[in-house]
Each structure stands twice: as structure tokens, then as C-alpha cells.
């Protein structure tokens, strides 16, 4: 698609929004009130608002390769801080996806450059869970590491000082671990209980 077509598409989209709600943009331009923070993968096949069927304004989004929550990543921590402390979202959704290229690269272990460094977090997850993974075939192992990565990033988000403080102050805040299936478009709740983390 030519980039000129993107501007045409954008006009069409804006007109459609106005047809549904003539005040859509004027009310959004004043304030945002999202109730969800989405921490997901940058993968182009996992478009946050589209898969949740939510309009602009409903979800605050942070995406990176393989949906990693690293305690040294100011970008992710700033997004969590702003979402929790200013926007006061009630749900943080850490969403991974099956078929994640980042997870695959971590499993293969030979990715050079920045991406290779970025994925070291997932390489640690593989090492830590090697007993659970050892009897699985390649596909099962790939799926399992995608799920374990979500679990680990939910734990990482839970242990940030931001979330710990929010819970100490009795904020109504829940962290969810979800996984999206690219091949059928369905989201699954991994049902990670806060008490088991
Ligand atoms: Co991915």
C-alpha cells in the first residue's frame, strides 16, 4: 500500500467514527479515561484495539518485542507509572501470543545485536524451566515458553514499586496474563492468580 492511501484510509476512518458518534473526537481531545493498560508484543499481527474490539481512548498501550517487563526499562516503567498513578487504570493486561518471533529467537539463542540482548530475559526463563520443558516436542515447547513468558512478565509487573505501592494503598488494580492465538484470533486468559505469583 502506498503511504498516500493511508491518508485516504484515515479520512474514511475519521468520518466513520463521526457517523457513529458526532462528539467522538471532541470529547477524546479533552481527556483520556482508559481503564486498561496493555503490555503486548510489537508483532504487527497483534493489534491491541482491534483484537479487543475497543475504540480509541479505551486502552493505554505499551508494546515491545516479546512483551517484556524489564525493571531496567524506563519506557515500560514509565508507561506503568503513568497508567497506574495518573490514569488510574484498574487492569494491567500482559498479553503474549503464540508464534512469537521474539520467543523463538530466544529459544534458538543465536540472535545478534540489540534484539539478542533484549531477549536475554526469555533465555533465563527457558533455563529456569528446563525441567518442565524437557519432555515436550518442539511445538509444545514453543507454546509453553510463550505462556511462561507471560507468567514471568506478570510477575515482573507485579513486583514493580509502582504496583506494590498501588496495592499497599488498596488501589483497585488487577494484573492479568493473557495469550493471543494469531491463527484463530482468539484471546485466552492464562488465569494467573495474584496469590500464586
Ligand atoms: Co511476539
How would you describe what is shown here?
The protein is of the alpha/beta class. It has 2 domains: 1-31, no CATH class; 32-189, Beta-carbonic Anhydrase, Chain A. The chain has 10 helices and 5 strands. It has helices at residues 3-20, 24-30, 48-52, 74-86, 101-108, 113-118, 120-128, 130-133, 138-158, 161-168, and strands at residues 36-41, 59-64, 91-97, 174-181, 186-189. Strands 2-1-3-4-5 form a 5-stranded mixed beta sheet. The protein is globular, with a radius of gyration of 18 Å. The model has no long low-confidence stretch (mean pLDDT 95). It binds cobalt (II) ion (CO). Cobalt (II) ion is lined by residues 41, 43, 66, 97, 100-102.
Question: CATH H level of the largest domain: which superfamily?
Answer: Carbonic anhydrase
Ions, cofactors, ligands: which are bound?
cobalt (II) ion
Largest sheet: 5 strands, mixed
CATH fold assignment of the largest domain: Beta-carbonic Anhydrase, Chain A
Question: Which of globular, elongated, flat, extended, rod-shaped describes the shape?
Answer: globular
Helical proportion, percent range: 40-55%
Spatial ordering of strands, largest sheet? 2-1-3-4-5
Amino acid at each position: 500500500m502506498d503511504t498516500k492511501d493511508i491518508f485516504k484510509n484515515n479520512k474514511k476512518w475519521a468520518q466513520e467514527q463521526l457517523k457513529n458518534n458526532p462528539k467522538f473526537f471532541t470529547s477524546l481531545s479533552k481527556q483520556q479515561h482508559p481503564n486498561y493498560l496493555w503490555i503486548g508484543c510489537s508483532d504487527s499481527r497483534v493489534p491491541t484495539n482491534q483484537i479487543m474490539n475497543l475504540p480509541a481512548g479505551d486502552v493505554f498501550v505499551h508494546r515491545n518485542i516479546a512483551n517484556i517487563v524489564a525493571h531496567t526499562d524506563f519506557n515500560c516503567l514509565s508507561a506503568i507509572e503513568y497508567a497506574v498513578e495518573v490514569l488510574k487504570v484498574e487492569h494491567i493486561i500482559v498479553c503474549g501470543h503464540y508464534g512469537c518471533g521474539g520467543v523463538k529467537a530466544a529459544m534458538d539463542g543465536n540472535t545478534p545485536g540489540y534484539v539478542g540482548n533484549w531477549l536475554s530475559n526469555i533465555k533465563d526463563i527457558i533455563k529456569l524451566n528446563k525441567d518442565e520443558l524437557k519432555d515436550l516436542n518442539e511445538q509444545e515447547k514453543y507454546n509453553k515458553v510463550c505462556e511462561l513468558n507471560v507468567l514471568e512478565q506478570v510477575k515482573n509487573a507485579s513486583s514493580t514499586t509502582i504496583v506494590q505501592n498501588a496495592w499497599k494503598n488498596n488501589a483497585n488494580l488487577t494484573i492479568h496474563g493473557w495469550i493471543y492465538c494469531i491463527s484463530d484470533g482468539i484471546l485466552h486468559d492464562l488465569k494467573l492468580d495474584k496469590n500464586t505469583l
